[in-house]
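Why does residue order matter? Because the sequence determines the fold. Keep that principle in mind as you read this record.
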Amino acid sequence: MIKRTLKQISEMVSAKNDSSSFSELVISGVTIDSRKIEAGNLFVPFKGERVDGHKYVVESIQKGAAAALWQKDVPNPPENLPILIVDDCLTALQELARNYRKQLPVKVVGITGSNGKTTTKDMTTSLLSTQYKVQKTEGNYNNHIGLPLTVLGLHEDTEVAVLEMGMSGRGEIEFLTKLACPDAVVITNIGESHLLDLGSREGIAEAKLEILQGLQDGGLAVLHGDEPLLMERIKRYKGKVQVKTFGRNETNDLYPTEITQMAQGNRFKMNASTESFELPVLGTHNILNALAAMHIAHYFSIPYEKMKAGLSGIKLTNMRMELVEGKRGEKIINDAYNASPTSMMAAIELVSNLQGYDRKILVLGDMLELGPQEEQYHLQIGESLDAEKTDILFTFGPLGEHIAKGARKILGEQRVFAFRDKTELIEELKKHVNEQTLILVKASRGMKMEEIVTALQR
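Structure:
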């Protein structure tokens, strides 16, 4: 984590006041939460609509913070305390991270995409960790606040940082990538997430490609080569960049040549190596994420033999294709972290192809932020189901009812249950499970579908 004197911090954030009497004070780490103060921290208060963090500045210093920022438009800054007055606390946090990044010798990998960026981040970290000291974005710290905090948490001796970059609108990825200055970047895919804000998949592609604007000259861009929206635009890109592609098609630089689905993951071969790789992650779409990570590993001179070990030891962030067991012995695929039509179809395909279960149940909830065509997207999910490979469908939420509507054309009335009350859904679901049942639980994060998984495990 950042460790600098208050004088150095003052210069990095362009402080407006004289703090020379505290200039030799050492700052260790940064926090924006007064409840999580650790000794030596710099506390950064935010002025929100409901809570003003400036109220907790004195308390934070009493708890052990070495110093705090103070926004100049907030009256009555405390006297005789190590305070740095800045124009805007958020901007100061971001500038501190930007300057710290410039001072570090660390190599940076930036990862974005509509789906799969967190999984790809985890895979990339696992591969690079076979040879380097690596840190990655933790949790969902991938926005204009989280990414600066992640950068400020990097150790001086970290060799590679794997940073996830999220967005909801135009310009956000550009800001993040110019702060992080990555040496290599990945765009996992272009899906339908954020259609509400960006209007079209073309708009999403343009927003994701902003990640190139911070890429070091001659750096590596790893792109999903089966996505025309990316490939058309990269051909017109004027910057200096190495481009490598991954995908299902043989036109890509990396593509799978053989896939064997196993109970808890996949075994696969790909075109660039004779090795057979085991991936303890469900879903063939995750093999593509692994190929993207392998491009990054190869760029950092990691041989395929080491990648084999790195892939086999992957641990993914929770609620992403997580296979758990329910109280009655049923197997549950907890993929409740997020959802879009693309990822929903991939998860359904996975369940359809898994063998060894007497009954397969889909529990699907609303996919959010899809814009004006959201009802149609949900209807199409239901209409796409295979009556031979899905036994029962449960839906949750108002948009989920459109999945149910489409599914009734395929499965009939008796095999489709639609709910807006989660407790009622859980009680009905429990009537249909036994130790030979496989259940998929998937929806957008806001639906909190992990509560269904927890209820089944009790």
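Residues 89-103 form the longest helix (15 residues).
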